[in-house]
Amino acid sequence: MRIYADNAATTRMSRTAIDAMMPFIEEYYGNPSSLYAFGQQAREAVEEARATVAGCIGADPREIIFTSGGSEADNQAILSAAAIGRKAGKLHIISDQIEHHAVLHTLKKLEKEGFSVTYLPVGTDGIVRVEDVEAAITENTCLVTIMYANNEIGTIQPIREIGEICRKKNILFHTDAVQAVGHLPIDVNAESIDMLSASAHKFHGPKGVGFLYAKKGLKLVNLIEGGAQERGKRAGTENVPGIVAMAAALKESVGHMEETAKAVAALRDRLIAGLSEIPHSALNGDAVKRLPSNVSFCFEGIEGESLLLLLDDKGICASSGSACTSGSLDPSHVLLAIGRVHDVAHGSLRLTLGDGATEEEADYIIRSVKEVVDYLRGFSPVWRDLCNGKGTFIL
Amino acid sequence: MSLYSEKVMDHFRNPRNVGVIEDADGVGEVGNAKCGDIMKIYLKIEDDVITDVKFETFGCGSAIASSSMATELIKGKPVAEAMALTNKAVAEALDGLPAYKMHCSVLAEEAIKKALEDYYAKHPDKHMPE
Ligand SMILES: Cc1ncc(COP(=O)(O)O)c(C=O)c1O
Ligand SMILES: [Zn+2]
Fold it and tell me: Helix, strand or coil for residue B34?
């Protein structure tokens, strides 16, 4: 048995996406840039996919650039805004402390190149304060980049409000919506979004393909130079099967978004209620303003990797923000940003449910986590000290 | 396919010598919650021989397996041998650890040394082997 509860890491491709993809692997392998009909068939499929993707977020097809995924889209969006800012002599960027590394590392690079970046804190609820964004804006601000929803703790940011402020102040607004696209309703115009990043494998499409939405007239810089594909903004022969499958997956996800969200959120809340029964545990991030699929907890007295390994033995695929799962000495920057101290942040668990998850699976997960947490606490010197009054419980 | 060797997983899933020795002759705790691994070793020593050893560990799979293996390697051995135990020997006995996990095995070596220091501090009549 396997219960896959790591859908924030990646999702299973939908049958619809696979079926849409196969003809472009097996038969229609022409190059979309070739002028004969066989190539133009592929071109047509790519453009149809572009229209589909655009329609799913309220954009115009000409505003969609296909990329290799979320990371590339984040890089291109931020570097493009920085180039525009540099031209205008505006070298200040506003972001926050819980962004994905695709955003954070790009910003670090810009800092080395002379930009200054404000990393806004989040509350213990994992949400950026709109007033903080407004207060951080200076006349030198060229970009605000705030993620739509967080990949670790699932919190949803006040995108529409931030967009409105940026629009009013005439500052470019980018959002990394990799965890939101296909799961939450998005309308780039209504939400005043100038640039948006998305990744197909987070909504049942294939890995290695994604897109960047960039508002009409916004001048993008190339990360990849070469041919004239993607209106000259992203060279390289298009990943036709991937692009076609992404569009099919997104159309399907958006088509049943409301029902799926409702069903998955009910299971999420069942899991949250069940895991909250574990003493000295706490939910990470706001309980309401969170992705329908995200459950993130900290358990005091245990370490996350051993928890994951033992859950794996029970057939449960999950993830953690502990240091020993990241290969660094520090636990997740997101957990630290919401005020979880190191001791507690090491004992984190992220479960992200899939569309087909059942109550039985949720209950099995609850039982298993309780069992494993109990077992690990049984020989944890940290837990013993806490129970013996040497040190104080944080959670 | 697994991140760890069979041996590591065996010691992680079925750790040997888990627990506490209430009347231990030497106790050593190393690591801190900041780095994410904490190990505590309890020793029983008679006639310069480690007659019993137990451990408690807060940590990753590699930390738990290293604690377990390290206790196996010193149980019933003369103190001098325990003193000479290296993290490399622990890792080798586990059929290797991923490079970025080696630091977790260092703690086992350090915890044993600290427990032995504790023993000699409490027994000034005895002399710590070099
Ligand atoms: C919020 C967020 N941004 C960016 C990415 C990177 O996307 P990709 O793996 O498609 O490059 C991810 C994926 O883990 C993500 O969760
Ligand atoms: Zn470790």
Answer: coil
